[in-house]
Design a protein that fits this description.
Elements: E1 3-8, H1 16-23, E2 29-32, E3 41-45, E4 48-52, E5 65-68, E6 73-74, H2 76-86, H3 93-96, E7 97-100, E8 104-105, H4 108-121, H5 133-141, H6 156-173, H7 180-193, E9 199-200, H8 202-211, E10 216-219, H9 244-250, E11 257-265, E12 268-270, H10 283-291, E13 304-306, E14 308-309, H11 310-320, E15 324-328, E16 338-347, E17 350-352, E18 364-372, H12 389-402, E19 406-410, E20 418-420
Parallel strand pairs: 1-10, 1-11, 2-5, 2-10, 5-7, 6-8, 7-9, 11-15, 14-16, 15-19
Antiparallel strand pairs: 3-4, 12-13, 16-17, 16-18, 19-20
Helix pairs in contact: 2-7, 4-5, 4-6
Bound molecules: guanosine-5'-diphosphate (GDP), 6-O-phosphoryl inosine monophosphate and magnesium ion.
6-O-phosphoryl inosine monophosphate is lined by residues 8, 11-13, 35, 38-41, 126-129, 131, 133-134, 221-223, 226, 237-238, 271-272, 297.
């Protein structure tokens, strides 16, 4: 048995939460493998809207186990809030949720360091979600971090204090003002409050499930263009969001990966700073933002909007080994007379087909192909037969360019607004 992976192919917010929830009926285990509360995964069904940050998106299905893998970073305060929000929905938490002992902890001082670092960068700021992600992964790779399993150790408090001392010295260097005491109080109370969620040695557990024939779906966070190695560095997050991250973030071997579901929006969005070759600064960009409700699920910030970028999508498919594509939010394009799709770039005056090293506007300009739009409202369509011909042409154009089939089309935020292609 293998582990399937579902991940974002753009700059995040592609709709991963919706599709993981939609797919969960076919899986026994949903496992988050990287990122932390910088993620905001939205699920809509039965008239309810849920935004999950750390908890995997299979949580509303009774017979599914949800695992937070070793590659994830956890802020107990955000995690507690998420658990509290599940209160009215009769989720049997100790039964359906477990955390890897090896998942790293986001300390209150990591959040402060994130803010101090962004402030120091000034105009060059990453546009981080300020959830402490960067500093936490820095401590992980710097071999200073604290892990969930450490909370079970008798000397946890000493370990905590030792790390906080280092952080305070750094914050002093930044001349950053803060009031740590209330943050610490909230943090320790949260650790206590979440202690009913089991900590497990997740790698042997996952391998046992694989050996028992259980079906596992690994849920990615962020998107491939935010990957620490392959994204638009330095305007990226601090983890490997690509498929390889599922191996390191769960302890699954590369030859155990099965299907790789790559999710993309029918256009592009990005929240935070950094290059975005097909960004629209005009009324059409505004229309996409308005029709797509493009405001961050975690921070509420307006998302930058632009046309679909096919060379960037092809690159993401290549580094992830995507086997099936899932297209989201095509309904948002309804009503546009014509659609532009980037099919190449002009880079320093030369025509190129791939995403180059430098992506800033002064070097890179997209080359567009124009396609016909569609006027029809597609949000109630139940099968591809019902879709307008020009939308079918749009889909065929993408499949042709990328060479991978689009297997699922999402035409609205609700679980039911999903069409098998
Ligand atoms: P994620 O981070 O990849 O899980 O995506 P987000 O939840 O941050 O952002 C996706 C947003 O689009 C959410 O508000 C979803 O409810 C919404 N959404 C998902 N699929 C569709 C769709 O097909 N059409 C529309 N209009 N909205 C969608
Ligand atoms: P989901 O899982 C969209 C962006 C931030 C910022 C950069 C670095 O919901 O798709 P960080 O807080 O990680 O240091 O921020 O990455 N970012 C996201 N953008 N969706 C996300 O997650 C994101 N997580 C981080 O806006 O530009
Ligand atoms: Mg999101």
């Amino acid at each position: 048995m293998s582990v399937d992976v579902l991940l974002g192919l753009q700059w995040g917010d592609e709709g991963k939460g919706k599709i993981v929830d939609f797919f969960t009926v076919n899986y026994n285990v949903i496992a988050r493998f990287q990122g932390g509360p910088n993620a905001g995964h939205t699920l809509e069904f039965d008239g309810h809207k849920h935004v999950l940050h750390t908890i995997p998106s299979g949580i509303f299905h009774k017979n599914c186990k949800n695992i937070i893998g070793n590659g994830v970073v956890i802020d107990p305060v955000v995690f507690k809030r998420e658990l509290d929000a599940l209160g009215p929905f009769q989720v049997d938490l100790p039964q359906v949720l477990a955390i890897s002992r090896k998942a790293h902890l986001i300390l209150p001082t990591h959040r402060l360091l994130d803010a101090a670092s962004e402030k120091a960068k000034g105009k060059q700021k990453i546009g981080s979600t300020l959830k402490g992600i960067g500093p936490t992964y820095m401590d992980k790779t710097g071999r200073n971090g604290l892990r969930m399993g450490d909370t079970e150790l008798p000397d946890f408090m000493e370990r905590y204090q030792a790390l906080v001392q280092k952080h305070c010295a750094l914050l002093d260097q930044h001349n950053f003002e803060y009031d740590l005491a209330p943050m610490e109080k909230e943090w320790f109370e949260a650790i206590e409050a979440i202690s009913h969620v089991p900590l497990i040695d997740s790698e042997p557990w996952i391998h046992e499930q694989i050996n028992n024939g259980q079906k596992i779906l690994a849920e990615g966070a962020q998107g491939s263009l935010l990957d620490i190695d392959f994204g638009t560095y330095p305007y990226v997050t601090s983890s490997n969001t690509v498929c390889a991250g599922a191996c390191t973030g769960l302890g699954v071997a590369p030859n155990q990966i099965g299907e790789v579901y790559g999710i993309f929006k029918a256009y592009c969005t990005r929240v935070g700073s950094g290059p975005f070759p097909t960004e629209l600064h005009d009324a059409t960009g505004e229309t996409l933002r308005k029709n797509g409700h493009e405001f961050g699920s975690t921070t509420g910030r307006p998302r930058r909007c632009g046309w679909l970028d096919l060379p960037a999508l092809a690159y993401a498919c290549q580094i992830n080994g995507v086997t099936q594509l899932i297209m989201m939010k095509a309904d948002v394009l309804s009503g546009l007379e014509s659609l532009q799709v980037a099919t190449g770039y002009t880079y320093c005056g030369e025509k190129i087909q791939h995403l180059p090293y430098r992506l800033e506007d002064q070097y890179l300009e997209p080359v567009y192909t124009e396609l016909k739009g569609w006027k029809e409202d597609i949000t109630q369509c139940k099968s591809t037969d019902e879709l307008p011909q020009t939308m079918k042409d749009y889909i065929a154009f993408i499949e042709d360019f990328i060479g991978i089939p689009i297997r699922l089309i999402s035409v609205g935020p609700d679980r039911t607004q999903t069409i098998h292609a």
